[in-house]
Write a structure and sequence with these properties.
With 600 residues, the protein is of the alpha/beta class. It is built from 20 helices and 23 strands. It folds into two domains: 265 residues, no CATH class; 277 residues, TIM Barrel (Alpha-Beta Barrel), CATH 3.20.20. The strands form five sheets. Strands 11, 12, 13, 14, 15, 16, 17, 18, 19, 20 and 23 form an eleven-stranded mixed beta sheet that branches. β1, α2 and β2 form a beta-alpha-beta unit. α2 packs parallel to α4, α13 packs across α14 and α15 crosses α16. The longest helix is centred in the N-terminal third of the chain and has 23 residues.
Amino acid sequence: MKGPFFSSLMMLFFMISCIFSSEQDYRWWPVQKAPKAIVTTSIGDMEPALYGGRKNSPEHMLVQSLSGLAAKAVNNDIIDELIWIKLEEQDLHAPSYKIWLREIMEQNNYENRGDFTTWQLLDRYKNKGLVKGYVLYSYDYSEGTMPYLREGMDRSVNAATVAAGILDAVLIAEEIEDKAKQAGLEKLLDVRGKDEAWAFEHFKDQINPALALAQDPRAPQHRAIAIANKTMVIFGMDEPTPTFYRWLEPLSPIMGWNVPGEGEFIEQLSVYGHHLLPSNWAMNLPVTSAGSQSHTFKPLKSVAPENIDFDAAKAVSFVMSDGDNVQWFMGDFSHGIDYYWASDDHGSYPLGWGAPYACLMQVSPVTYEYLQRTQPDKSTLLLHAGGYFFPDRLAEKLGTEKRIELLRRHARRVSHYMKTTGSTTYMFLCYENGTKEAIEAYQIFAEEIEDLIGMLTIQYSPYNAEEGKVFWVTNSDGIDIPVSTCKYLIWANLDLRNTGTPTRISRKINENAAASTEDGEPYLAWAMTHTWSGFYEIDTNDETAENAQFMEADTYAGVTPTKWCVQQLDPDIRVVTPEELLWKIRMAHRPEQTKKILEQ
């Protein structure tokens, strides 16, 4: 007989299930349990490949698969340690990853169980029963750079990666098969000559239906998390990619990066209802993400509205591009190069950063914490979309009802992370701003994101197609919310309207601000700095002499060239954070509503 105790037990189980389900609804990165210890290995000790050196080699592929099997075993309570793969000293990402490892070890009090070679790790995990055998593949030696489609590319490692996660196997290239046999491993599967289409057809009933990896066959990076979570691996937009996208659960994250073209790639995954997590060069994600589901986060800095000078009639903001890029924020964004967060000029003037902080809170809390801890008073972090997708094209192939459902679901996930960080500004990139579908997306995000001040939006090409136009939508309380489009681009070697060098953009801003206030209109606009544009520092007003190539000798990118633009603005133009700009737009165009909100 089912008495009161049974009923109470069922109610408790239901409440726990709801809490767990609710938490998972907010995540898009997979959950990784925390270990008790870390073991390390070094790329610098691995045998190099013909192309790519040690960083991209058969041994690195093997270690990635061992890391993935260890992560899966921790999730299944079989072992209690994860693998950390140390980068080579000359790698631009190395300084950041050293810091992340040190902070992870200190915060979690993980035991350090020592440094091992590739083959010592293989023995270690074979003896623990984690490695059932190996999958044999052919290493890709096609000529050309990554990530691109190359003539004669061998894709069998992508098929092998899918198989490894399902068979509890390691990745073994032909070059190292003899060593695998000497280690006592059994060949479980030979996928030489096979590709992603074969893997999807062969393992369709066993792969993860809500996650995938897009990765160049020559790149080892990121395969650990794919193997740990039994995910499909794709590369390129031809079959089986569209068939796989149709099969995949809607609103699934695609980790990594795909080719041949960025716009076509994002459009393809968007219309099937998915979103990208740009992360193909990211390393050690099982360790950096471990325990993130129960992590507590401190809020980001924001502008107090009562401190805003609403009487200033001319104001402009500057925002850094590529805020969706998870691997960049985990890599040289913070420490490895002085163009961005580590720039000596960072904090010397108000600046907005599009940032993937919702992703970082799931996959690398230490990176989020570093940004939060070191955020200057004059910087604003705006959540960039929560993945990379075109909201105006999302789920286009799934019908209007499903599209609206997915937009609302993702907007609620976004709202969760913004509320956690105390953020009130949001930005994303549309395929085409101003369309009915784009405005529909703006409206949904305004309704679902709590305490939203406003949104910034750019168009895929060009970013500033709408030339600063402001769209208005309403939140769930009927309050008008501005969606401000980009007006200027600091972008090297690009000759488009309101686009160019810091000197050219400063002249444009000065001219437009003067003309606007002469007509009695407030001047409120924003510019985006292209992250990957290089500039020379000059001592003339030549608007083309600053143009350079990114990372060329004696050039700058990011924060410092933006500062040059700021320094050339007329004295009566106030440079403000994007958050302050949105408040000023609201006060200028919806004064009664805005005053009432500020009073409350």
